[in-house]
Fold this protein.
Amino acid sequence: MIDILNVGILQTTLDLNIAWSRGTHTLQMNEYEAKRIWDEIKKGFVNFNSLSPDKKPKIILLPEFSLPLHYEQELVNLSKSIGSVVIAGKDFITTESTDRTVKFVENKAVVIVPQNWPEDKPSFNASKFYFGKSFFSNLELDFFKPNFEAKKNLSMYILNAGAYGNIGVAICADFFDIERFVIYKGRIHHLFVIAYNKDVNSFYFLAEAISRLVYCNVVICNTGYYGGSISFSPYNESYKRYIYKHEGSKLFTSQVISLPVETLDLSQKKVEFKIFKSAPPQYTQKTIFPPMYNDRTVIERSLNPPAGAVL
């Protein structure tokens, strides 16, 4: 396996009070705010692209709601040009029932995989796929009323990044989904959470707890409007555990962090015992992913070679 995985955190500063109006019939992001956030995204990619090859991110995370729907193809182009996988939260997606009596709203993220990944060079093609939010916060459910009904996406994804390890993903409130961690325990090296959450202190405490219980690196890319992006790894030495922590509201930032891969994998296999905390009770590294867990579908996606529609 590879020693480290470089991850880019692109913390945009979307203002929900400007982006959407309560009671709206469209739930589409305000064009002014969409343009402002897109300018931040482009600025972040310029910063990442200016780095030396050994410092560039292999994977870039954007917070929940960061991607206006009509900028998706442009984000694909940025992903191809820099050669990094991009995981980005999208604006609300709305659909109707077949009889048009009910309007549904979904919260999804897109995963964009350049054709040449993980090589450090641009790609002419890319693929993409989506994962969705399973459980909505009470604030979201109130916001949708009376025009929309929230649609759950109960699938849980494990992204196979080859030598860079296995990755679990979650959107905001799904970070509190206990069943997700039962599946992820023993099966992932990294957990990536994209969020738009004002309760940043809960995220800090939960990041450490989940990192120890699931025994993996945890990265939360939260909105810069509230701050609170964080990365935690279960190192033995306490000063190493907080790999990254960004506090302060309404702050745009683009930062590259380095996550341990090979040493953590050896510790998960119980070969190396000095670098990381002891694994939790009854922890074993697993290589088989169950197709179902209760009523949840478990989906494995390979990032190399990419899977999905070629763009």
Q: What stands out?
A: Helices lie at 16-19, 31-49, 72-82, 138-144, 178-184, 200-215, 238-241, 262-268.
